[in-house]
Design goal:
340 residues; alpha/beta; Rossmann fold; Dihydrodipicolinate Reductase, domain 2; 2 domains
Length: 340
């Protein structure tokens, strides 16, 4: 591609770092790269040194595409700077939650609704990590048979809550390995997550809200409806934090409108963009977070029919939450923007 673009990456946490890696790996056509954060400094990513500028409205002058890294569950820099970046001519792709449900902001997963990019008014939202991998897996099935019901349980890695959560997991593991325990006081010194994570799981991601569901659980409902343009799908979710560094896993139960065999589903998924089918349970072959880490695809396995419900199906879906669940999906959106 002959044309090149001035790109800004906003934020240098775990997602921002992955955005820098993905831009380089996918050879995005960059004329000038600006890295913005709260304070100026130099950082090193895979041996390359990046000069980080302190963020300001003026820093977006001349920027064509601004990738806001955002942070799961928190208000991101986009709330303060996105509209100013758009005013200065940039297309903003926001990984945070600030604009996802705004009616005039497309919420995009390129394998599902790439055409929605054309509807943007300057801002395009990147969905939540757990939503992205679920809709990538569901969309090929939905197109063939329709889906009337989804029940999903997520098992989400510590990196989904940011660098401090990864450090918390590491510290807790070290203390327990040394024969100690994680006391309430020790936990109080690092409140990245509301409970101990090492040697533990807990069913809370985000704050509790309507009907005692968490904000993360409602994201799976509302974002899926918006991306798939179908709010008649009945979706219920439980989101669980697990002691994994990176890589979200999801046990997904669906009821389709039309009957379909598990073999047909496997065939559909194996031919679908962005999906790798790993489904040979007799040989212990199925997706796991350790194998998905660092990869951009969504991995699907354990495809099987419900023996008691005619149109019921189970899927096991795994993806790197920092890559396809955040940075890669954002860069793929940027690729759609420049091809539009």
């Amino acid at each position: 591609m002959s044309k090149k673009y001035n790109v800004a990456v906003v934020g240098v946490g775990v997602v921002g770092i992955e955005m820098l890696k993905v831009l380089k790996e996918r050879n995005f056509p960059i004329a000038k790269l600006s890295v913005l954060a709260r304070s100026g400094r130099n950082i090193s990513v895979d041996g390359a040194v990046y000069s980080v500028q302190a963020i300001s409205n003026e820093a977006f002058e001349g920027i064509d595409i601004a990738l806001f890294a955002g942070t799961e569950g928190e208000k991101g820099a986009a709330a303060a700077y996105a509209n100013e970046a758009v005013r200065r001519g940039a297309v903003v792709i926001d990984n945070g939650a600030d604009f996802r449900m705004a009616p005039n902001v497309p919420l995009v997963v390129p394998e599902v609704n790439a055409k929605d990019v054309k509807k943007h008014k300057g801002i395009i939202a990147n969905p939540n990590c757990s939503t992205i991998q679920m809709v990538v897996a569901l969309w090929p099935i939905y197109k063939r048979t329709g889906i009337k019901r989804v029940i999903v349980t997520t098992l989400q890695a510590s990196s989904g809550a940011g660098k401090s959560a990864v450090e918390q997991l590491k510290e807790e593991n070290s203390k327990i390995a040394e024969g100690g325990y994680v006391s309430v006081q020790a936990k109080a010194d690092n409140m990245a997550m509301p409970q101990q994570l090492a040697y533990n799981v807990f069913p809370q991601i985000g704050g509790f809200s309507d009907s005692d569901y968490t904000s993360e659980e409602w994201k799976l409902v509302k974002e899926t409806h918006k991306i798939m343009h179908d709010d008649k799908i009945n979706i219920s979710a439980t989101t669980i934090r697990v002691p994994v560094r990176t890589g979200h896993s999801e046990a997904i139960y669906i009821e389709t409108d039309k009957n379909i065999s598990s073999e047909e589903v496997k065939d559909i998924l194996s031919k679908s963009s962005g999906i790798i089918l790993m489904d040979d349970p007799q040989n212990n072959l199925y997706p796991m977070p350790k194998d998905a880490e660092g990869k951009d695809e969504v991995f699907v396995g354990r495809v099987r029919k419900d023996p008691f419900v005619k149109n019921g199906l189970w899927l096991w879906v795994v993806a790197d939450n920092l890559r396809k669940g955040a940075a890669t999906n954002a860069v793929q959106i940027a690729e759609c923007v420049i091809l539009d």
